[in-house]
Amino acid sequence: MRKLITEMKWRGLIINNTNGLSDLLKRKVNLYSGFDTTYSSLHIGNLISIILSIHFKNYGHNVFFLLGTSTSLIGDPSGKKGERSLMKRHEICFYYRKIRKQLFKFSNKFQIPIMNNNWNKKLKFIDFSRKIGKCFYINYMLNKDSVKKRLRSLSFTEFTYQLLQAYDFYYLYKHKKCVLQIGGSDQWGNITCGIELIKKKNQTQVHGLTHPLLTKSDGTKFGKTENGDNIWLDPKLTSPYKFYQFWMNISDVQAKKFIKIFTFYNKRSIYKIITLHDRAPCLRILQRKIAKATTILVHSKKIFNDIYNINKILFNTNIKNFNTYLRKKDLLLFKKYLHCKTILLNSTKFKFKLLDILILDNFICKSKTEVLRKIKFNSLLLNMKTFFSDYVITKKDLIYNHFIIIKKGKKNFYLLYFQYEV
């Protein structure tokens, strides 16, 4: 099993690990990975934990997924600049059901997800302070990065989070024989707390391993409570098409890193793909391989095929006019996956100023100024044709009497669906 650690390090999937982990993995072990329930969906940052867990499972180990239904009520201070708002119990329960359903997609490889409220709801403060709090010195807890960086704005509630996560590890060690916890690199302090607790309570050495965090272009991590436009695993929050396009639009530098992390190609295949990509970077071979692998993993092969067919049409440089090229089934596929805005028609008259449509509900553009600027530089196309700022949409612009496609910039497509009221 030493090969597992070697391969994971080559893939860039390991940031920290405890000494002796390679020796531990010479035999089959139980391990777990935790997910908080502070939003209704996991995101692509969580996907690294899932993929790492799949690698462990493929090497014969037994993996548990833990959902932090009680620790989410406290809030993990790791990586946070300020204290988060406390969530309500009914919100946590709702999010738990959503995330549990997502994890069931991978349930053929793992145990049924469990929630830590099953045991934490039985805890009494005095008993917890005596049995668990007694095992930790304040100086040890203050030295954790999640505490040191927030010392002036850290509440007692957040300060206790590391003890509760440590207790999760202790409980899973006792009841599920888990001897390894994996998580993001920001969880190292919490993981080592659990290792310390088990060492003091049971005189046993258990282990921890962390993987890299996925960061956005501004350097912040993908997180359920972070600001910004996250890429979610839930197709209702991030459409499969947008999910696919995210991977298609990553840089070559990112792609050479991500193909090791987010795919299961072996070392020889990856180097071959990188070599082919470098010969013709414009073909974006790396990005295509990653986009295909992640879309199939998270959604399905059928959805990937649908999106692949959409892209073949939308990015076909030979198409000069969508009106004469597209089939009705193509439009229905677009309606299913692209950004789509329905516009109700309550009159037999059909005349709309295109500029007004483009800023409707900030769907395509946020202001008339933005529209005018993009029209000037031909960055907005109607059914792949340029237009003037005073252009008026009429029925002749509709594809199959209902559809108009707007292209914004080089990569963004929007569908306008005109529906006649009965």
In short:
This protein has helices at residues 2-10, 21-24, 44-58, 89-103, 117-120, 125-131, 138-142, 145-148, 156-159, 161-176, 188-202, 240-248, 252-262, 267-279, 285-298, 301-314, 322-325, 328-337, 354-358, 368-376, and strands spanning 16-17, 30-36, 62-68, 114-115, 178-184, 207-211, 339-345, 352-353, 380-382, 392-393, 403-408, 412-420.
Question: Can you describe what's shown?
Answer:
The protein is of the alpha/beta class and 422 residues long. It has 3 domains: 210 residues, 3-Layer(aba) Sandwich (Rossmann fold); 77 residues, Orthogonal Bundle (Tyrosyl-Transfer RNA Synthetase), CATH 1.10.240.10; 102 residues, Structural Genomics Hypothetical 15.5 Kd Protein In mrcA-pckA Intergenic Region, Chain A, CATH 3.10.290. 44% of the residues lie in helices and 14% in strands. The protein has 20 helices and 12 strands. A 6-stranded mixed sheet has the order 1-6-5-2-3-4, with helices on both faces. Helix 12 runs antiparallel to helix 15, helix 13 runs parallel beside helix 15 and helix 15 packs antiparallel against helix 16. It is elongated and about 80 Å long. It starts with a helix and ends with a strand. The relative contact order is 0.10.
